[in-house]
Amino acid sequence: MSLFVVTGTDTGIGKTVFSAALAGALGGSYWKPIQAGVDPEGDSETVARLSGLPADRILPEAYRLTTPASPHLAARIDGVEIELDRLALPPVDGPLVVEGAGGVLVPVSETLLMADLFAHWGKPVILCARTGLGTINHSLLSLEALRARGVPVAGIVFIGDPHAENERIVPALGKVANLGRLPHLPALDPASLAAAFAAGISLPGL
Ligand SMILES: Nc1ncnc2c1ncn2[C@@H]1O[C@H](COP(=O)(O)OP(=O)(O)OP(=O)(O)O)[C@@H](O)[C@H]1O
Ligand SMILES: C[C@H](N)[C@H](N)CCCCCC(=O)O
Ligand SMILES: [Mg+2]
């Protein structure tokens, strides 16, 4: 069964849009274990809108927190304690796409970072990175942090307008597979997202 964890070099990088396309292409399920911020919608609702998957393939979040902030803070504001026991990967039939919150060193709690959670799961991670200026540093730092914890990295995906040199140097220096690029889409809808994913992304076994 294929299972991918989708992370990013930052919040707002395009993880949810990519995850929707990936889950749709795999014909799988989607899980956002920790949602921080639900107004106007959480990532699960976005994926339901963009993936073309039936509603029952969008698994309920383990934590659905109201504040758009770092999960450790959003949890504190809601009076909730985030516990590793509730973050076990859900058993599903078929492929699963799991989306992290923010970037790799975002705190889930006072003692746990997103990358620690990825290491605990031990499943391959896809790093979403923007194409433009600043991405080299953010991408290589993210890859170092993942590797330092022994997290398997399936590859990097670029999001945005093409930048040939950044798309070359980051995978080369980061020693990671380049899985392709999802362009910035002027209109986000299931059909155009699926077409852009099919044209731009190549995942082994897909
Ligand atoms: N390929 C794309 N084309 C057009 N718009 C995009 C694309 N990718 C992302 N966006 C837009 O950029 C914004 C941030 O994207 P997204 O919500 O996927 O980020 P994220 O990395 O999942 O953020 P978070 O850390 O909150 O989970 C959204 O408004 C989304 O619609
Ligand atoms: C609110 C946002 N959309 C995400 N849910 C959480 C992002 C946490 C980022 C924390 C940080 O890196 O400073
Ligand atoms: Mg998201």
From TrEMBL:
CDD domains found in the cross-reference section: DTBS (cd03109)
Matches recorded under HAMAP family: BioD
Protein name: ATP-dependent dethiobiotin synthetase BioD
Keyword list, A-Z: ATP-binding, Biotin biosynthesis, Cytoplasm, Ligase, Magnesium, Metal-binding, Nucleotide-binding
Taxonomic source organism: Sphingobium cloacae
Pathway: Cofactor biosynthesis; biotin biosynthesis; biotin from 7,8-diaminononanoate: step 1/2
Family stated for the protein in its record: Belongs to the dethiobiotin synthetase family.
Annotated localization: Cytoplasm
GO biological process: biotin biosynthetic process
